[in-house]
From TrEMBL:
<keyword id="KW-0143">Chaperone</keyword>
<keyword id="KW-0963">Cytoplasm</keyword>
<dbReference type="InterPro" id="IPR046357">
    <property type="entry name" value="PPIase_dom_sf"/>
</dbReference>
<keyword id="KW-0413">Isomerase</keyword>
<keyword id="KW-0697">Rotamase</keyword>
<dbReference type="GO" id="GO:0042026">
    <property type="term" value="P:protein refolding"/>
</dbReference>
<protein>
    <recommendedName>
        <fullName>Peptidyl-prolyl cis-trans isomerase</fullName>
        <ecNumber>5.2.1.8</ecNumber>
    </recommendedName>
</protein>
<dbReference type="GO" id="GO:0003755">
    <property type="term" value="F:peptidyl-prolyl cis-trans isomerase activity"/>
</dbReference>
<feature type="domain" description="PPIase FKBP-type">
    <location>
        <begin position="4"/>
        <end position="93"/>
    </location>
</feature>
<dbReference type="InterPro" id="IPR001179">
    <property type="entry name" value="PPIase_FKBP_dom"/>
</dbReference>
<dbReference type="Pfam" id="PF00254">
    <property type="entry name" value="FKBP_C"/>
</dbReference>
<comment type="function">
    <text>Also involved in hydrogenase metallocenter assembly, probably by participating in the nickel insertion step. This function in hydrogenase biosynthesis requires chaperone activity and the presence of the metal-binding domain, but not PPIase activity.</text>
</comment>
<dbReference type="GO" id="GO:0005737">
    <property type="term" value="C:cytoplasm"/>
</dbReference>
<comment type="similarity">
    <text>Belongs to the FKBP-type PPIase family.</text>
</comment>
Amino acid sequence: MQKPAVLTVHYVLKNKLGELVDTSEGSEPLHFLEGSPEIIEGIQKAVKDRNVGDCLEVTVPPAMAYGEHKPELIRKVPRSMFEGIENLHVGMKFQTNTGDAAQVVQVVGIDGNLVRVDANHPLAGFTLYFDLEIIGKREATEEEINAGHPLS
């Protein structure tokens, strides 16, 4: 069985209007272990069996990215849960610890003593448009495979 690869990829992410959402240009490229759950399925499938120097245009539907937007992940919570937070406003993000995993929620509304928070990923429900350039690819070490991510 072939070991997974460690890939290094520059990316440009745009929305359906062609507007820039995110990019690695001018910063660190994406560095990941093939098959890692940290990278969306659409990117994983696009770079599989590709080589250094390959440039790809990839359209990733929500099901292969961050999933559909789930209305049930929008909740109203008491403002008292934000005690000590000055100037609480729409757009603020907080990390919460619910169950086994930490989760990021965004304030999407404030109505008196109730705060509406959204636990959906900000890109949930959207088709994503990527330009990818593979700039590095090597076999993962046993340590990286066990860790589930690149170590260098």
